[in-house]
Amino acid sequence: MHKLRGLYAITPECADGARLLADVEAALAGGCRLVQFRDKDGAMAERVARARALRALTRRFAARLLINDDLALAVLIDADGVHLGAEDGNLVAARAILGPNKVLGASCYADFAAAQTAAAAGVDYVAFGAVYPSPTKPSAARASLDLFRQAGTLNAARCAIGGITLDNAPPLIAAGADLLAVITDLFSAPDIAARAAAYQRLFEEATP
After folding, report:
1. Sequence spans of domains, the chain
2. CB-hemisphere CA count at 13 Å for 148?
3. Domain spanning 6-205 has what CATH number?
């Protein structure tokens, strides 16, 4: 599988489906090539419609679309993969269902043992967070930079999530983060495409 590296755009809760698509398109235009559709509260019919629209949009940009916490929806729309939290499904079963060529990611919070278990189950990336105080999950446990260094021993990419901004992102990349999962600092930016491009430059300027 192509190495996972760069900005990982996580969609915000959004009542306006057309705006959501326009905002994701702007992120893709700025160079983002990995998008996660995250919708905890929408009606199923609306979630399916939005996921299908995002699937078509990401294909136009040769980008990948993952579905948050819903393996069935990922399979239904032929997404590029799924992201699962600790309570959202068995990783070994998810890998068997997805097959070897889809992306499987797992939330490991601030728990290296969970990351070891996830890597053994065949995930493509382990996500640690919140790395900084997060407006999306203000009560989340904090994940240290040392986790990213420690996880360099695992056969999985390392994803950072939680409160990430352009200003506080460089130490994460320096510590070994391959992916920066961003919601607010990306989609609340006055120019989403420019913000996405700026995140991508952080990776280009860093030594892999």
Report:
1. 6-205
2. 24
3. 3.20.20.70
Residue among 38, 47, 55, 64 flagged as catalytic: 38
8-19 pLDDT, tens per residue?
A: 999 999 889 999
Residue 157 — φ and ψ, nearest 5°? -70, 155
Read off the pLDDT of residues 123-152 as tens digits, 9 standing for 90 and up.
Answer: 999 999 999 988 777 777 899 999 999 999
How many Cα atoms are found within 13 Å in the side-chain-facing hemisphere of 114? 20
Mark whether 107 is an active-site residue: yes
* Catalytic-residue membership of 40: no
Q: Which residue in 52, 95, 137, 142 is the catalytic one?
A: 137
User: What 3-state class would DSSP assign to 47?
Assistant: helix
Whole-model pTM? 0.95
Peptide bond into 115 cis (omega under 30): no
Lookup result for tokens 């990419």: 157
